[in-house]
Fold DNA-binding protein S1FA-like.
Amino acid sequence: MADNFEFADKGNKIIYETEAKGFNPGLIVLLVVGGLLLTFLVGNYVLYLYAQKTLPPRKKKPISKKKMKRERLKQGVSAPGE
């Protein structure tokens, strides 16, 4: 099918109407937003992998003396000094 349509106006003027060529603006916005989101997610994953390799493991919280005494009693070992 041809993209050109001819219409005769009052004064025998011929108007040519063609379909707009180019990208749909909605598609451009969708591609840009999708690309930024994908870049963000990939970047976070790469940083996560890097952090797993380089950072030392997290330290455990110190246990109070009271809790240590309770754990030893559960295991059947008497606490020192008692």
Notes: The chain is about 50% helix and 10% strand.
